[in-house]
Design goal:
By secondary structure, the chain is an alpha+beta fold. The chain is built from seven helices and 19 strands. Strand 10 and strand 11 form a beta hairpin. It starts with 8 loop residues before the first helix and ends with a strand.
Length: 417
């Protein structure tokens, strides 16, 4: 008789999904360094150039992997930006947002020099520098500058964001964890990388039990028979659990066909939502910065089909511009790859810069379909080439009213016969 494992299938699934959240960040880190990124070196991306799920096409991105230690801070300079959304987001190795630099979080110092330092590091800094303490030695920086109506001005501002270390911080050796395709998640081999993955502290509460389960499974997979069993559980149970959770973004809510996550960017004990976001839209920010809605079904509950035609109508008293202090946008992405739907017009987004046409009653109707509907203004139509299921991603940047944003529900996506 084979030995009876002490690790239940539910525990294997939970541990796998928890570990996957970290492996997704490590995957992106390895891809970045293969591309040529180096520590404490900012890379300014051209608009639309980033290659990760559910990109935001309204902003110019700049990226870096940042290292600090007891003897070296990293200086980030931010230009004065007015009337345009911007933020410099810092995330740890689990995809948790640690800080945002902008006029909302630092109203008395919205621009100028910031020193990102390891918490507890005793270093002298110039008087005009705002110190930001970090609980992690190695982090990810993602700067966003709204493109707006003047892309050249946005890119000029983007390039004025600079980064430099004050010393020579100790740099880590990159972990050799699986670099996988989104459509081919790792199986039992994920647990072979557990030691390296868990070397990065998880700052969230009550993660010790999950980490103990990960380590216990990593020990068990050394036995060939148990390795085979655990791999089967991952592929049959964990993958199914993860797919089921993705429909509602974990404990998120779905109304009018739109799903909104329960948490975003800073997850507390909700590791499930963290992993789902790291998989479906890595580097997600907090609700203070943006509200995200995913529309995967029409008003009848049927999945969106790019061969069909749909409309979204915002009434005059709840136009999308009323929900965002800065900008809003909607784009269509493939349901499996989370990349924008290609089309001959190279038109991937509708937003506040799209010269949209409003109805006589002041309402706004957006159209989605493979060809432009006869009644649709061309400016209000987003092409969806036939042949695939897709999702709509609706974003509001810097909600005007945080309390109202928690209960806001976008209008339903209506299929047009």
């Amino acid at each position: 008789m084979p030995p009876v494992s002490q690790i239940a299938e539910r525990d294997i699934s939970d541990a796998y999904i928890y570990l996957l959240g970290r492996l997704l960040v490590l995957r992106q880190q390895q891809l970045d360094f293969r591309e040529g990124m180096t520590w404490n070196q900012l890379v300014h991306r051209k608009p639309g150039e980033v290659d990760w799920p559910n990109p935001n096409l309204d902003v110019a991105y700049s990226e870096a992997w940042m290292a600090v230690d007891e003897a070296s801070c990293t200086m980030v300079s931010v230009p004065a930006i007015q009337g345009r959304y911007y933020t410099v987001q810092v995330l740890n190795g689990w995809g948790e947002t640690l800080a945002n630099i902008n006029e909302r979080t630092y109203p008395d110092h919205p621009a100028g020099d910031f020193a990102f330092c390891l918490k507890g590091a005793n270093l002298a800094l110039p008087a005009n520098v705002r110190r930001v303490d970090l609980p992690a030695r190695y982090t990810r920086i993602l700067a966003r500058v709204e493109l707006g109506a003047d892309w050249k001005q946005a890119e000029a501002l983007q390039h004025r964001v600079t980064l430099r270390p004050t010393g020579t911080p100790k740099l880590p050796q990159l972990p050799r964890t699986p670099v996988f395709e989104f459509r081919q998640l790792p199986g039992v081999e994920a647990f072979e990388a557990a030691g390296e993955a868990l070397a990065e502290p998880d700052l969230n509460p009550d993660m010790e039990l999950l980490q103990a389960k990960v380590r216990a499974i990593a020990d068990e997979v050394r036995d060939p028979a148990e390795r085979t069993r655990i791999d089967g559980v991952i592929r049959q149970r964990a993958f199914a659990d993860f797919a089921k959770a993705s429909r509602t973004i974990g404990p998120g809510t779905t109304r009018n066909g739109w799903t909104r996550a329960a948490v975003s960017g800073s997850y507390g004990s909700d590791y499930l939502t963290r992993t789902l976001f790291n998989y479906g839209g890595i580097w997600v920010n907090t609700f203070d910065e943006a509200n995200y809605y995913r529309g995967a079904a029409d008003s009848t509950g049927a999945a969106l089909d790019s061969s069909q035609y749909y409309t979204i109508t915002f009434p005059r008293d709840r136009l999308p511009a009323a929900e965002a202090r800065y900008f809003w946008s909607v784009l269509a992405v493939d349901s499996k790859t989370f990349r924008v739907l290609p089309n001959s017009m190279n038109r991937y987004i509708l937003n506040n810069q799209s010269d949209l046409k409003y109805g006589k009653d002041g309402s706004l109707t957006l159209y989605f379909g493979p060809l432009k509907p006869a009644q649709a203004p061309r400016e209000n139509w987003l092409p969806t080439p036939a042949g695939q299921q897709y999702r709509l991603m609706l974003r509001f940047y810097s909600p005007k009213d945080q309390e109202a944003a928690r209960s806001y529900v976008p209008p339903p996506i209506v299929k047009v016969s």
